[in-house]
Amino acid sequence: MWVADETMEDYALRFAPKSFRKWSAFEVANTAFGSTSFLVLEAIGGFLTINYGFTNAVWAILAVGIVIFITGLPVSYYAARYHIDIDLLTRSAGFGYFGSTVTSLIYASFTFTLFALEASIMSLALELYFHIPLAFAHVISALIVIPLVTFGITTISRMQLWTQPIWLVLLIVPYIGVAVREPEALLTAQAYLGIAQSGQGFDWLMFGSASTVAFSMVAQIGEQVDFLRFMPDLTKENRLRWWWATLVAGPGWIVFGMCRQLGGAFLAHLAIRHGIPALHAHEPTQMYLIAFEGIFDDSKTALAVTTLFVVISQVKINVTNAYAGSLAWSNFFSRVTHSHPGRVIWLFFNVSIALLLMEFGVFSALEKVLSLFSNISIAWISAVAADLLINKPLGLSPKRVEFKRAYLPDLNPVGTLATLCASVVSISAYLGWFGLYAKAFSAFISLTLAFVLVPLFALWYGRKRYLTRSHILQDGQCQCSICVNQFEQEDMAYCPYYGGNICSLCCSLDSNCMDACKPGFRLEDYLLKLAQLFPTKRWAINQKLRLIRYFFLFVFLMLLSSLFVGIIYYQDLLSAQNDLLSFHILQNNFIKVYTSLLVFTGLCTWWLILNDESRRVAREEINKQTERLLIEIEEHKITDAKLKEATKAADRANIAKSRFLSNMSHEIRTPLNSIIGYAYILQNDPAIPQHRRQAVNILKRSGEHLSSLIEDILDIARIEACKFEFNRDVIDFPHFIDHLQDVFKPQADAKGLNFRCQINNTLPKRIRADEKRVGQILMNLLGNAVKFTSHGEILFGISYSCGVATFQIKDTGLGIDDQQLENIFQPFTQLAQESIIPGSGLGLTISKILTELMGGELSVCSRVSEGSTFTVKLYLANAGDMQEPIRQQAITGYVGAKRAVLYVDDQIDHRQLIRAVLEPLNFAIHEADNLQASLRVLAQHEIDLLLLDLSMPETDGFQIAQHLRQNNHRQPIVVLSANAYATERVNAINAGCNDFLSKPLHVPELLNKLKLHLDLTWTYHRKLDGDAPEIKPEQTYQMPEAVLEELHHFIRIGDLIGLNGYLVTLFRDYPEHADYIQKLQFLSAEFRLSELRKMIKITSRLL
Q: Which string of b and e fits 1013-1041 if b means at least 16 CB within 10 Å?
């Protein structure tokens, strides 16, 4: 939660982007200047004056101030110019990625040490004013800053801005008050020589010792640049303001700090003058209390104002200490652990350490703490300043400031070795190993060594090894390939491990890459080179590496623990130095505790080494698995590419198939339209001889069968193209079942099969379904059952429950083996039988697809030589009891004036067919074969409706329709085309057509469209369409019984061909019964076997 909120994170571990730097140069400078409010400056000035004399203190303060200004100038410039904090700057200034880890620890130590010192001053003021225990005052002083620091520079900047005027007034007023009300104090201060062992005047040893203490503030520049990184970009317009803000908030802090130290020297003299013991005269609370008492006559008021001033001063500085410490700890642990729980976590961590130091009484060991710290901090800051001030201008190091892990070596010996050498030599000098003068000037030794060694090491190491590789970005992209966030280009690096650009934060926290981008520059590579230097051949290289890792880690933890434990015991030893017995007891206790701690440290070190090795092994295994997965992914990519190519080929083949089906459908439908149309005309023509009607019926049924086959093929194409639609009509369910039974029972009887229809429960009277498609499914299955069954029976079972109809077709046929059972629903698949039974191989495929599209289920269970059972489950909603639809009578014409129809088609046969169909119904038919002919007809006649073909050579139907609509012809246009695809229907409607009919022509559908668009009222023949002349019972009883038995025989065995031949003979032999025989011929031609049986049975009963 905290890591994702940059308002709280303030871009820890990374470059401060322009989008976040919304403050002006004045606001940033004011925030950074507020960090100089720490009262340790007065404490140092007073301490130096009391212990080393006023003269030595003044010269030490001035000398150290000049040095801090010089070292702080390049650091401040580069931080403000490139918007990076002190840790990122140290990385690029000759320390490397892991080399700066130690300096981060030094810097973090400085922040919590200074925090403890400043908070201790505030605690003394709280104790003095509120009379609370000092331990409780420490808690208040430490915790009060956490809410302010949590939200980063945004809150800190506001707080510094609001408190700055009050703090400046309270800072200056005491000096003015003393000068006005106690001017003699200035005169006595001029002659004040301090309480130093050397007596009066300047002394080199005292000057050196005082400088060492004063140098402890050199690391303050780190806290200044932590705010300077938020400076706006340097431009020509803000050049003066930018430089002024950088100088004031950067190295300029020491100018103000020197004045404060000198003021502290004066206030310490004033405190001693008023009777404060020298041991406490350098405490800021005592100093300012004396000064304010000189202004206010009421001591309580003076104490209250002093407390207010101390609290404001310490809060202003400690928000900076806590903020800088959280950044330092974030940088340290992110490199050690490759994780970052958030800057706020390290804020609590830093404050907790400072609070512990406060409870231990760190303020009492001010001199020793600051002197020891100054030797290390001056070496670090001097090394950074030397690289920026000397190496970069001289070309000994790259001019580019690079802070990202991807481009930095883990260790850069230039800054690391220079700082290490300068620190070791200066600390050794400080411990007195090189004499008194070396001890006094240990800080100057550290400074000098750092400035000398850095360019020498850079000259030896070479500038090319500062960076591990050149700077590249993949296509200049600024999106991180890991966190997928957008960043500015300065915060991005190319990662070969992930094969993309990554941000500096993801680069710092990633633990999987093992620094794959910089082989030869990793910490492990340095340790490997060191292990290879050992001449011992008995040990494997891994054993040497383990010992080297253990040694360095153990030494690091030993020194770290000795530092903290030593400081604690050192304070106790100082207090007991006059009591030899107590001194020796404390000394022995320190040795025992530290020895025990070393044992524990050794165990912890070994555990850390083994844990690190196990983590390395696990990471190597993960990398191996990742490599295998990447190889597999690449292989899958190749396979995927082949699949895509195969898919494209299949799509091309599918497109070709669709084109073929479209062309084939059109070419077949065109002549088929004439065949079925004229068959319809002939069938309804009373002039056709009776013995030729059977041929006409066969012609019509054959055409309809061919049309149905084309529809089956196109159905599959429509289903594949997801363009299939269903109707929801009301069906007479019992009549629907009877019709299926009437169709297939005679066929089964003809083959000697027993056909049984078994209804298991009550069926609804009416259902809602697509009658054509449901019938198509069941007729395919029943037809297959009859076709593939040679003996036995066929059971057609129907059940209905809760809207679900279950149809079961069970036969005793050949059966299907398991291998073929898997493929029977594939298109154009036929069973491998000894005798091939003709068929298209589409029936089961279409039935399966249609069932699934209607939300149903088609399953099959079969055994070879035992038969098969096909089960269909469909949701057929109960439509309730509805009025039975009236059967349509034969149409003879229409009511009203004669209507004119224009048929536009390039095929004369089709135009003649329409004329033959519609002219008998009193329509005036006009013909045209192209656009121009159509326009001529429309100009000469009043046309009520247009029939329009689509595929014509010169101008297609779409263009004709568009032209007519554009010229204000508003007659209804009905398309009559062999292109029956849904896209053609949509295009026709878009072109201005009103309706669409597909070829071959179905006359009833055409008549329905004419009625709809012309608002016609039909006139009908008195007899029903399709009914034979009514037969009266008295006309049938004279038929001979032998004739009736013969007719019954033909119907029972299903021999319709024999039946039709016999009826022709009867028509010739019994002309007096012509009406009766014609009725039988009509029913036979329509395969209406059940009605044939009923008529023969009625006749038999009448006889």
A: bbebebeeeeeeeeebeebeeeebeebee
Instruction: Give mean pLDDT, residues 404-414.
Output: 87
Q: What is the per-residue pLDDT for 518?
A: 83
Print the domain residue range for 597.
546-652
Length of the chain: 1103
Is residue 651 over pLDDT 60? yes
Mean pLDDT score, 402-428: 88
Interatomic CA distance for residues 906 and 927, integer angstroms: 10
* Number of Cβ within a 10 Å radius of residue 124: 22
8 Å CB contact between 401 and 74:
no
Q: CB-based burial of residue 659 (10 Å sphere; 0-12 exposed, 13-18 middle, 19+ buried)?
A: exposed
State which amino acid sits at residue 577: Q
* CB crowding 900-920: b at 16 or more within 10 Å, else e: bbbbbbebeebbbbbbbbbee
Tokens found for residue 556: 């690091």
Per the listing, tokens 């091309």 go with 652
Number of domains in the chain: 5
For residue 147, say if its preceding peptide bond is cis, omega within 30 degrees of 0. no
Distances (CA, A) of 924 to 246, 378, 927, 936, 1043: 100, 114, 10, 16, 49
pLDDT in tens, 488-535: 888 888 888 888 888 888 888 887 787 888 888 887 877 887 877 777
C-alpha gyration radius of the chain? 53
- Do 987 and 1091 belong to one domain? no
Residue 20 · residue 7 · CB < 8 Å? no
Assign residue 191 the CATH number of its domain.
1.10.4160.10
Mean pLDDT within 853-860? 86
Shared-domain flag, residues 612 and 556: yes
Residue-level pLDDT at 1099: 55
Average per-residue pLDDT for the chain:
81
* pLDDT band, very low/low/confident/very high, at 8 (cuts 50, 70, 90): low
Tell me if 296 is assigned to some domain: yes
> First vs last Cα of the chain: how many Å apart?
101
Please give the angle made by the CA atoms of 193, 194 and 195, to the nearest 5 degrees.
130
Question: How many Cα atoms occupy the beta-carbon half-sphere of 715 within 13 Å?
Answer: 23
Amino acid identity for residue 211 in this structure: S
Q: For residue 689, is pLDDT > 80?
A: no
Q: Which residue from 847, 841, 734 is spatially nearest to 787, judged by alpha carbons?
A: 841
Whether 979 and 831 share a structural domain? no
Sort strands 867-875 and 973-977 into parallel, antiparallel or unpaired: unpaired
538 class by beta-carbon count within 10 Å (0-12 exposed, 13-18 middle, 19+ buried): exposed
> What are the tokens at 528?
């490997």
Locate all alpha helices (DSSP H) within 751-859, ordered by sequence.
771-787, 818-821, 843-853
In order of 276, 520, 759, 764, the CA distances from 734 in angstroms are 119, 88, 10, 8
SS in 3 state form for 37-75? HCCHHHHHHHHHHHHHCHHHHHHHHHHHHHHHHHHHHHH
Q: Is the pTM of this model over 0.70?
A: no
Residue ending a domain, choose from 615, 635, 652? 652
The CA distances from residue 284 to 124, 281, 1084, in Å, are: 9, 8, 126
- Where does a domain end: 652, 669, 688? 652
Q: What is the pLDDT at residue 879?
A: 79
Q: What residues pair up with 87 in beta bridges, in sequence order?
A: none
Q: Do 1049 and 980 share a structural domain? A: no
Considering the domain architecture, whether residues 222 and 294 belong to the same structural domain is answered as: yes
Question: Reduced to 3 states, what is the DSSP secondary structure of residue 281?
Answer: coil
Label residue 878 exposed, middle or buried (CB < 10 Å: 0-12, 13-18, 19+). Answer: middle
In this structure, is residue 992 part of a structural domain? yes
**Residue 836 has what pLDDT?**
45
| Of 655, 567, 665, the residue nearest 361 (C-alpha) | 567
